[in-house]
Design a protein that fits this description.
The complex is a heterotrimer of chains A (about 400), B (about 250) and C (about 200). By secondary structure, chain A is mainly alpha-helical. Chain A is built from 18 helices and three strands. Chain A folds into two domains: about 260 residues, no CATH class; about 100 residues, Tetratricopeptide repeat domain (Serine Threonine Protein Phosphatase 5, Tetratricopeptide repeat, Alpha Horseshoe), CATH 1.25.40. Chain A has a three-stranded mixed sheet, with helices on both faces. In chain A, helix 13 packs antiparallel against helix 14. In chain B, helix 2 packs across helix 5. The longest helix of chain B has 25 residues. Chain B is globular. The chains are: A mainly alpha (about 400), B alpha/beta (about 250), C alpha+beta (about 200). Chains in contact: A-B, A-C, B-C. At the A-C interface, strand 2, helix 6, helix 7, helix 8 and helix 16 of A face helix 1, helix 2 and strand 7 of C. Chain B: Keywords: Signal. Chain C: Keywords: Signal. Chain A: One of its GO terms (cellular component) is membrane. Chain A: This is Putative Zn-dependent protease. Chain A: Its cofactor is Zn(2+).
């Protein structure tokens, strides 16, 4: 139980210092000063040059990587949001790589490489939310966090190695050392959160977007846990192994910060949905194949809250329910496909999904009729021969 | 079957097992009958993957750019000196740009995968594949088409080199002493490397040397010479003998 | 949101993992019918293969010519409803999809695809061609696919044949890098797959 207490204490400390920081930080927009930006920073110390070298090697790999999305339109959109968030001067030095990885993450290396995962683009609902995350990552870069993080992590692992050998029952010390590493990371994350928030406050985007993102991430992780018959697990204090402040803490201090500034910004025309239109069905498909029913359902509902239940969202929901495949899911799936088809702009595959859902639900005649429609509309489909065997049985 | 953590596990096993001499491991293999005739071969050195750093007490890798740059210089110079002494020519590969560069990257990864398989399934006696146990057998390759990579038309062999060095910090070495007393195997430093020669006419891997416990400080010229000798241990025709070790000044 | 520290993580992992026990690999001679994957499934190989001592899961086994990273032939011998295709690395946070007794043959490629996507943590998996093909006298499916591992440029290709028989999944997969290795053993894989009996 000692570790548990330690975790509570650590979490509490971080949270308290966070609140204190906020009290002084919340002023009006004019006083949300940014550090002076220095361009083309050159690494000086041994540790820095080493970290730079690794980042350069990683970038070499990225340039050949088949998982990087090269679509110029999507890349221009993401760069545009970053530039509008942090300003043209800061944004100029950044190389952005969008990787097709279906998880919520972005990162920035000290050499100016920014990696944005497709799962992040899927989860944000507008330019401001995307800007909040990109600004946070840029904040790590501007504050040169990765080198500091590296030094801290080194002393942490040193301690653990000693403990594991010198002390027979060293579990507690190992835990304490790990806890220190992650507590340090949490402090860095908070710093990046706050500088990210300052970019946002000075940009054309509403400052409340940062808190919105963390609200949704909390909602999604609860939904994932519930979908796996676990307990909802968003925490009020950072868990012992958490490298980041809890999403609740972040949503709270970022919300407080956004309320602390008087915003009188004209509403910008949001191009997020238009920029994502071609990629949304692909990113949704990547998400649905992750065997995370609760989380996927939450993402769909969250997107629908912004755009309404559009055809791609309905089709994706049909696929999600059909793949889980409980009898009641198959009924729901058929309804979603039918609704999508009713819109008139559904992909032909909606008939395929409808047919397979009905077949699995033992509605053979209706199922075969839908599959026959699919084959009639797309005779050269890659799975046409296989589907034909289901129609004729 | 997909095993995403296979490489990590294999690396861990190797580093853990290195302390236990019971799992003896071979280091060199060559295609039976292969000889590199002096004065005839045109060898292209593919972009070597060289990484040098320190290993902290906890075993975490600290990359060191200065050491890595030095090591790259030293290895290339030592290699050129050694082969020129034999009358063979060694030229660095001119990397293509655009679509072809991805293909080169794929072949580099294929070489790494093949080298890892040789280590795991032929050199490692305890895990050797039955079809790889036969006497005088060494059948591995990248396929004939590797010779069709841009810029290799006039070359006879491609040489691939991967080395990774984590020098043990003082803390790590002291830890090792205590660990030995506690009967726990901890290695100080990671010094592994493999070098492989691919016949560009046949695509066969004609020679591979892999060492997970190498010596020689690649950061100074004499040490780099030692490392080159080790990387080329068992090289048919023993090309890397005299020229390297005694003449660090000439390498510069 | 963070920069990932691969080196840091692997350093931590050293303390959590012990070396797995050495498992012996055995020779599979050509021309003889052998039972595979601890099941009633039998096949006749046309050339010799190596059977790996390490199994991907309870009712499965892998064969190879040059190592499982270069060519991998895996048999899944009747995976029961409610079980994943192969051993789960992180059951709690990354559960794999499970076999269902009501699976249609169209669901077999989907199960493999989704299992790989979860295990690889990447969206690089693509099913290329799907067609009906009898499997051991049952209604079955043949499909081809391609993927790459996270942080790798090397493209890998695969071909699989399978069927759901009496509520259990039977599947044979073959995978290799697209450069050189895939074509090299594809015919030998097909000979094995075509000889399957239950």
């Amino acid at each position: 139980m000692r570790t548990h207490v330690a975790a509570l204490l650590l979490g509490a400390t971080v949270f308290a210092s966070g609140a204190a920081g906020m009290a002084t930080g919340a002023g009006d927009t004019g006083r949300l000063a940014l550090p002076t930006y220095s361009q083309a920073y050159t690494p000086t110390t041994v540790d820095e040059r080493g970290v730079w070298m690794e980042a350069d090697e990683d970038e070499r790999r990225l340039r050949e990587s088949p998982s990087v999305i090269r679509d110029p339109a999507l890349n221009a959109y993401v760069r545009g949001v970053l530039c509008r968030t942090v300003g043209d001067d800061r944004c100029r030095s950044v190389r952005i790589y969008i990787e097709r990885v279906p998880a919520f993450n972005a990162s920035m290396a000290p050499n100016g490489t920014m990696i944005v995962w497709s799962g992040l683009l899927l989860r944000v609902r507008n330019e401001a939310e995307l800007g909040a995350i990109l600004g946070h990552e840029f904040g790590h870069f501007e504050l040169r966090h990765s080198v500091l993080g590296f030094r801290n992590r080194r002393s942490g692992t040193d301690l653990m190695a000693w403990a594991s050998i010198l002390i027979r029952n060293s579990g507690d010390i190992q835990y304490a050392a790990i806890g220190q590493i992650y507590a340090f990371d949490r402090a860095q994350e908070r710093e990046a959160d706050m500088i990210g928030f300052r970019y946002l406050a000075r940009s054309c985007y509403p400052g409340s977007a940062a808190a919105d993102v963390w609200d949704h991430i909390m909602g999604e992780s609860d939904a994932t846990a519930l979908g796996r018959r676990g307990r909802a697990q968003h925490k009020y204090v950072a868990g012992f192994f958490a490298s980041h402040p809890t999403e609740l803490a972040r949503a709270t201090y970022l919300r407080a910060a956004s309320l602390g500034i008087a915003e009188a910004k004209s509403v910008v025309v949001d191009t997020h949905q238009a920029a994502m239109a071609a990629w949304l069905p692909i990113f949704l498909n990547d998400q649905i194949k992750l065997n995370d029913f609760g989380g996927s359902e939450y993402i769909l509902a969250n997107l629908a809250a912004g755009s309404g239940w559009t055809t791609p969202l309905l089709y994706a929901r049909g696929e999600l329910y059909r793949e889980r495949g409980n009898p009641r899911d198959l009924v729901s799936a058929a309804q979603f496909y039918q609704e999508a088809i009713g819109r008139g702009d559904a992909p032909v595959e909606a008939y395929r999904g409808l047919g397979l859902a009905l077949l699995r639900n033992q509605q053979a005649a209706e199922g075969q009729a839908a599959l026959a429609t699919y084959l009639r509309l797309k005779p050269a489909a890659p799975d046409a021969a296989l589907i034909a065997t289901l129609v004729s049985q | 079957m997909v095993k995403p953590f296979r490489t990590l596990l294999a690396a861990l096993c190797l580093s853990l097992l290195a302390a236990a001499p019971a799992f003896a491991q071979e280091k060199t293999g060559a295609k039976p009958g292969f000889v590199l005739k002096p004065g005839t071969a045109r060898v292209v050195l593919m972009r070597p993957s060289i990484l040098v750093g320190a290993q902290s007490t906890g075993g975490m890798f600290e990359p060191n750019a200065d050491w890595t740059d030095q090591a790259k210089e030293n290895l290339a110079a030592a290699l050129a000196a050694a082969q020129t002494g034999l009358g063979n020519s060694v030229v660095a590969y001119a990397e293509p740009v655009g679509a072809d560069s991805a293909r080169v990257a794929e072949y580099q990864e294929l070489f790494d995968a093949v080298a890892s398989s040789v280590i795991e399934y032929q050199f490692f006696a305890g895990n050797r594949l039955p079809t790889k146990k036969r006497k005088d057998q060494f059948e591995w390759g990248l396929g004939r088409e590797v010779g069709a990579l841009p810029g290799l038309a006039n070359a006879d062999y491609a040489l691939f080199i991967t080395t990774e060095d984590h020098f043990g910090s003082t803390g790590r070495k002291v830890l090792q002493l205590f660990a030995a007393m506690a009967n726990v195997g901890v290695t100080a430093g990671v010094h592994k490397g493999f070098a492989g020669l691919v016949d560009l006419r046949t695509g066969d891997l004609v020679w591979l040397n892999a060492d997970m416990q190498m010596g020689g400080d690649v950061c100074d010229p004499a040490g780099a010479g030692k490392r080159v000798r080790q990387l080329f241990e068992g090289f048919p025709g023993k090309p890397v003998e005299a020229p390297v070790s005694g003449t660090p000044a000439a390498v510069r | 949101m963070s920069i990932t520290y691969r080196t840091g993580l692997s350093a931590l992992a050293v303390f959590a993992l012990a070396a797995p026990a050495m498992a012996g690999n055995t020779l599979i001679p050509p021309g003889l019918r052998v039972a595979v994957a601890k099941s009633a499934m039998t096949v006749v190989p046309s050339i010799e293969w190596n059977k790996l001592g390490a199994r991907p899961g309870r009712n499965s086994e892998s064969w190879t010519q040059d190592g499982d990273d270069l060519n991998d032939l895996t048999f899944y011998g009747g995976i029961e409803a409610g079980r994943p295709l192969f051993r789960e690395v992180d059951k709690k946070n990354q559960p794999l999809p499970k076999v269902s007794a009501t699976m249609l043959i169209t669901d077999i490629p989907v199960l493999l695809e989704n299992s790989y996507r979860v295990a690889l943590g990447a969206a690089s998996f693509k099913v290329d061609l799907v067609e009906p093909l009898p499997f051991a006298g049952n209604k079955g499916v043949r499909f081809t696919y391609s993927f790459s591992k996270q942080n790798e440029t090397l493209q890998r290709r695969g071909e699989a044949r399978g069927a759901v028989i009496a509520g259990k999944l039977y599947l044979i997969t073959y995978e290799a890098p697209g450069l050189y290795y895939y074509d090299r053993s594809a015919a030998a894989f097909r000979a094995v797959a075509e000889s399957v009996r239950l």
